């Protein structure tokens, strides 16, 4: 029996060694970066363009120790906050709308996945007919054009809130800007240039509606013309809030925290608190440029703090199509 046991042990060891030696190679690739949710009769597709790491030192309004403690609760590195670049497609049945375009070629190390993910999601860039920009920072406009300055969306009109155009596209303001700010002006102007040349760059003043399906509202502070876009259908609605939030681990529990990128910190804080309070009350969907992908979900409120409820992953279907078990 001892010899038989040794034989089984030896055989098992040999089989284990062979199985380990024959294990397949690791893949080292992620799934395509798109996610769909139905909002009434509208189909919303979140698109992952990439990400970047932000320094917690950019946040203003809390001590560094408190910020580190909040990050630690979410297992986030104390020195680097990973931040998604999200864009969104809305298929209304009449229009294929893109909200923001990601960082594109401006952050080549970790971004530039917008077009591959549009294709993976079953659409093509030339099918987009309308583009809404929440504001004109580089991580929202650089995906409009390639590194050579050519338009990527050949059949789309690009809509820019008037407050953004008056600031970022004003030659006098660009000439007076210094340092990194000057680059932001140049980047916005360059990304929009091919659309302007073709007569496809449009401006509007919220609450004007460039297409019937959208409602618009200024939410200024992060930039002078930051705008929220709301699409409603069949009793449901989704709000595209741009950069009302950058650091969810900190700014949901402490909405009074601003970030260095805010042009007017007080206005940015007020805009965030007003929008989040309304969304917590009405229960509508929100979609944000810098929340963890897909950046779609709901908000609840506890006193002066907010809680993030990300979208539940599942098959694409409307709520009315889901069977209710009793």
Descriptive overview:
This protein is α/β, with parallel strands linked by helices and 326 residues long. It has 9 helices and 15 strands. Strand 9 and strand 10 (227-233) form a beta hairpin. The longest helix is centred in the first third of the chain and has 20 residues, at 2-21.
What are its keywords?
326 residues, six-stranded mixed beta sheet, globular, alpha/beta
Euclidean distance between termini CA atoms: 58 Å
Query: Could you name the ranges where pLDDT drops below 50 across 5 or more consecutive residues?
Result: none
Query: Main sheet, how many strands, which sense, barrel?
Result: 7 strands, mixed
Percentage of residues assigned to helices: 25-40%
The sequence of SSEs as H and E is HEEEHEEHEHEHHHEEEEHEHEEE
Shape: globular
Task: Detail the topology: elements first, then pairings.
Elements (H helix, E strand, L loop, with lengths): L1 H20 L12 E6 L2 E13 L4 E2 L3 H10 L7 E11 L4 E4 L14 H7 L9 E3 L5 H4 L15 E5 H7 L2 H6 L3 H18 L3 E4 L9 E5 L8 E7 L2 E5 L7 H4 L6 E2 L5 H18 L2 E3 L8 E7 L2 E6 L16
Parallel strand pairs: 5-6, 6-7, 7-8, 11-13
Antiparallel strand pairs: 1-2, 2-4, 3-12, 4-5, 9-10, 10-11, 13-14, 14-15
């Amino acid at each position: 029996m001892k010899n038989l046991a040794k034989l089984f042990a030896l055989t098992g060891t040999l089989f284990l060694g062979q199985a380990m030696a024959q294990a397949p190679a690791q893949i080292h690739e992620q799934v395509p970066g798109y996610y769909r949710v139905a909002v009434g009769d509208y189909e919303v597709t979140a698109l992952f363009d990439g990400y970047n790491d932000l320094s917690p030192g950019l946040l203003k309004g809390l001590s560094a120790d408190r910020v580190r403690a909040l990050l630690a609760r979410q297992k986030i590195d104390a020195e680097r906050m990973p931040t998604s670049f999200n864009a969104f497609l809305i298929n209304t049945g009449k229009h294929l709308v893109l909200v923001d375009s990601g960082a594109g070629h401006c952050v080549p190390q970790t971004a530039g996945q917008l077009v591959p993910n549009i294709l993976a999601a079953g659409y093509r860039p030339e099918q987009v007919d309308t583009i809404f920009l929440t504001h004109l920072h580089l991580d929202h406009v650089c995906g409009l054009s390639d590194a050579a300055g050519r338009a990527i969306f050949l059949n789309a009109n690009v809509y820019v809130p008037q407050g953004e155009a008056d600031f970022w596209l004003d030659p006098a303001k660009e000439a007076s800007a210094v340092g990194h700010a000057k680059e932001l002006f140049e980047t916005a102007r360059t990304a929009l240039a091919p659309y302007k040349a073709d007569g496809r760059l449009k401006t509007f003043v919220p609450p004007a509606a460039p297409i019937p399906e959208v409602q618009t509202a200024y939410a200024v502070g992060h930039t002078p013309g930051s705008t929220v876009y709301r699409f409603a259908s069949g009793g449901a609605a989704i709000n595209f809030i741009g950069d009302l939030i950058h650091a969810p681990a900190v700014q949901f529990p402490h909405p009074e925290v601003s970030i260095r990128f805010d042009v007017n910190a007080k206005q940015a804080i007020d805009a965030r608190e007003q929008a989040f309070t309304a969304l917590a009350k009405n229960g509508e969907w929100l979609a944000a440029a810098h929340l963890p992908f897909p950046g779609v979900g709901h908000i609840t409120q506890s006193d002066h703090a907010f809680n993030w409820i990300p979208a539940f992953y599942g098959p694409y279907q409307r709520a009315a199509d889901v069977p209710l078990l009793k």
